[in-house]
Design brief:
This protein is α+β, with helices and mostly antiparallel strands. Helices cover 34% and strands 32% of the residues. It contains four helices and seven strands, in the order αβαβαββββαβ. It is globular and about 60 Å long.
Length: 136
């Protein structure tokens, strides 16, 4: 019986592969040191400040982002930011990934807004800072 399995495996292995190759990268939560968190939050604020388009959003939209790849920043006290030519106070924000199709969702008290059209260099800055994260 063992000989039959070895022969069968040898025959199957001799044919050209008919199954496509596939690889996956599974996303995990990343943790950061205090200094790294400060750098990430500053970069996220700069990214938000570079936005030139916005619209109202909802709590439902905001909460749904936790199910996909994102950077979540929750401030100890609200940060004042000028984005899309408007001054806003930011309690927390979520940058969705990938940034080329994503945006920034902002919560201010019970109000939610969506921002987009941000500076490319800000995306690169955040991507570089994310490399320092460690799986949790």
């Amino acid at each position: 019986m063992n000989t039959a399995i070895v022969v069968l495996l040898s025959v199957l292995g001799a044919e050209p592969a008919s199954v496509p190759e596939a690889r996956a990268l599974l996303v995990t939560h990343l943790g950061f040191t205090e200094k790294q968190r400060e750098n990430l939050s500053d970069a996220a604020v700069k990214m938000l400040a570079s936005c030139s388009s916005s619209c109202p959003s909802s709590e439902k939209d905001f909460q749904s982002l936790f199910k996909q790849c994102h950077l979540h920043v929750k401030f100890a006290k609200p940060r004042e930011v000028t984005a899309d030519r408007k001054k806003i106070k930011v309690d927390e924000l979520i940058v969705s990934f990938p940034t080329n199709t994503g945006g920034i969702w902002v919560r201010t008290g019970d109000d939610y807004h969506y921002f987009t059209k941000f500076g490319h260099e800000r995306c690169l800055e955040i991507q570089e800072l994310l490399k320092a994260g460690r799986p949790q």
